[in-house]
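Submission sheet (multi-component)
Chains listed below:
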Amino acid sequence: EAQVTQNPRYLITVTGKKLTVTCSQNMNHEYMSWYRQDPGLGLRQIYYSMNVEVTDKGDVPEGYKVSRKEKRNFPLILESPSPNQTSLYFCASSLSPGLAVSYNEQFFGPGTRLTVL
Amino acid sequence: RKEVEQDPGPFNVPEGATVAFNCTYSNSASQSFFWYRQDCRKEPKLLMSVYSSGNEDGRFTAQLNRASQYISLLIRDSKLSDSATYLCVVTMEYGNKLVFGAGTILRVKS
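Outcome: structure written.
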């Protein structure tokens, strides 16, 4: 089954304790992206990657790191989480970047609900 | 000013009603446009793309007006299952950067 998986789905942690949220897709997609969703603000792009070893900042990259060593994986790293990073996080992938046509659909993972105390 | 703005609603409509949502975007360099649907606490899923010529998929019609910088979504004959949050999405930087609106809540009631 074609899908994007994220782990963990739920995480409660404390300020300053490094954590990683994994994201994996099995569709051989080139483009992957991380978003956070907060009430009233919608989804905001954190980082995106157009291919292996190519990553770029989105709108809200501060406090996050990513890596893209393999095509299928795009982990999100919070080196020193803070309470303002409490949010719902989504990973997404799509076939290829830069295509303004309908098959540039973003496929989203199920989300990771993170609480930082 | 937000790059993509939507009326948050909620829009409360009876089954069978026709309902329309608008979304405005501020960057004239925006390249492609989509409507996504998000059910409560679930991941967003693509509803439809939006083309300059307009496009229709069953009960759903999407329109793009580049001159006025807005896109619209029309839902005819609303079903209970249409209840969800509808997200307007605009892409920039050759499709690599996606900007989401905060969403419009639709509640269809029997």
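Remark: Chain A has no helices and eleven strands.
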